[in-house]
């Protein structure tokens, strides 16, 4: 079995407590210049989203666009949500049918925007939750 390891620049970013704008630029320029094109790219973004407690304002938009693109256009079946893909989305981004964070709620909404057909289950996950509403 192949071990998953973060490569440059993700390995440096993962060790920081605060992700800044330059980290996102490094990812765009050197880490994933063509965006999230593989399972490893998506895993890298998920790890960075979870391991850096403080994130710069540029991170959520970058994370949302890259992960949404990966889910809709790279993961099989492309441009479609089958049961396996729906279960993966639910397992990674929701708890008891509610998006885990405001960023993940926005991600689910973005996936809905990109899909030509949206299963009803996904729209339920993307609904605003009182804990995720910014004041």
Description of the molecule:
With 135 residues, the chain is mainly alpha-helical. The protein has one domain (10-132). It is built from 7 helices and 4 strands. A two-stranded parallel ribbon has the order 1-2. Strand 3 and strand 4 form a beta hairpin. It is globular and about 40 Å long. The relative contact order is 0.11. The model has no long low-confidence stretch (mean pLDDT 87).
In short:
This protein is mostly helical and 135 residues long. It has seven helices and four strands, in the order αβααβααββαα. The mean pLDDT is 87.
Topology:
Layout lengths: L9 H5 L3 E2 L1 H11 L7 H13 L2 E2 L2 H17 L8 H11 E2 L2 E2 L2 H13 L5 H6 L10
Parallel strand pairs: 1-2
Antiparallel strand pairs: 3-4
Helix pairs in contact: 3-4, 4-6
Tell me, briefly, the overall form: globular
Spans of 5+ residues with little confidence (pLDDT < 50)? Answer: none
The percentage helix is 55-70%
Number of helices: 7
What is the straight-line distance between the termini? 46 Å
Structural class: mainly alpha
- Share of β-strand residues: 5-15%
Name some characteristics of this structure.
135 residues, mainly alpha, two-stranded parallel ribbon, 7 helices, 4 strands, globular
């Amino acid at each position: 079995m192949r071990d998953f390891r973060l490569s440059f620049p993700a390995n440096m970013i993962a060790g920081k407590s605060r992700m800044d704008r330059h980290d996102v630029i490094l990812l765009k320029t050197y880490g994933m210049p063509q965006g999230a094109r593989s399972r490893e790219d998506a895993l890298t973004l998920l790890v960075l989203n979870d391991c850096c407690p403080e994130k710069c304002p540029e991170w959520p938009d970058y994370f949302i666009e890259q992960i949404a693109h990966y889910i809709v256009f790279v993961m099989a079946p492309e441009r479609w949500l089958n049961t396996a893909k729906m279960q993966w989305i639910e397992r990674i981004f929701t708890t008891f049918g509610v998006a885990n964070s405001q960023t993940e709620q926005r991600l689910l909404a973005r996936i809905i925007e990109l899909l030509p057909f949206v299963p009803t289950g996904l729209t339920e996950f993307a609904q605003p939750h009182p804990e995720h509403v910014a004041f």
